Amino acid sequence: MSAEVTNHRHFAVQIEPMRVRDLTGVLSIEKQSFPTPWSRYAFLTELLENDKAYYFVARTPAGKLVGYIGMWFIINDGHITTIAVDPNYRGKGIGRQLLETAEAVGRRHDMHRFTLEVRVSNKVAHELYRKMGFVDAGIRPGYYRDNNEDAIIMWKELL
């Protein structure tokens, strides 16, 4: 699946399935985005061994990898496992476009709802998820191992 998504306030990105060859770019964004980044092995396992996993990347018209999203489909629920945008490209609607792609793919796979966790301190991401229709559903105490920070559990109904 490949799709060009246009955000009228910003620019279009091409969204396509993540491939092993994308991992150098993905890992660069991962390291800039998270205090405890996933390893190359973690992404390889998701791409090559997890039949419930779906991962996508976002590219500029020039082909630069600027974001990615990963999700699992389990029964009728989708779980966003990771999402990140290159710090130099944040605020341009790329995160929204990645989430819209995840939802579209989820609907095609008969997912009824999506869930994700977000750091309590990540106000920008929390606000994006709320704008996208996710609602707070609870707290996972000490969810993030790097600093024992709580996670907000969020859900979005797709039906």
Task: Please explain how this structure is put together.
This protein has helices spanning 23-33, 40-49, 94-108, 123-131, and strands at 3-5, 13-17, 53-59, 65-74, 77-85, 113-119, 135-144, 149-157. With 159 residues, it is of the alpha+beta class. The protein has one domain (3-115): Gcn5-related N-acetyltransferase (GNAT) (Aminopeptidase, 3-Layer(aba) Sandwich). Strands 1-2-3-4-5-6-8-7 form an 8-stranded mixed β-sheet. Strand 1 and strand 2 form a beta hairpin. The protein is globular. The chain starts with a strand and ends with a strand. Mean pLDDT is 92; it is low at 1-8.
Number of helices: 4
Give the helix level as a range of percent.
Answer: 25-40%
Poorly predicted residue ranges: 1-8
- Describe the strand arrangement of the main beta sheet, using strand numbers: 1-2-3-4-5-6-8-7
- Mean pLDDT over the residues: 92
Q: Tell me the radius of gyration.
A: 15 Å
First CA to last CA: what distance? 22 Å
**How are helices and strands ordered from N to C?**
EEHHEEEHEHEE
Share of residues in strands = 35-45%
Apparent shape = globular
| Structural domain tally | 1
Q: Architecture, CATH level 2?
A: 3-Layer(aba) Sandwich
Query: What is the CATH superfamily?
Result: Gcn5-related N-acetyltransferase (GNAT)
Question: What structural class do you assign from the helix and strand content?
Answer: alpha+beta
Number of strands: 8
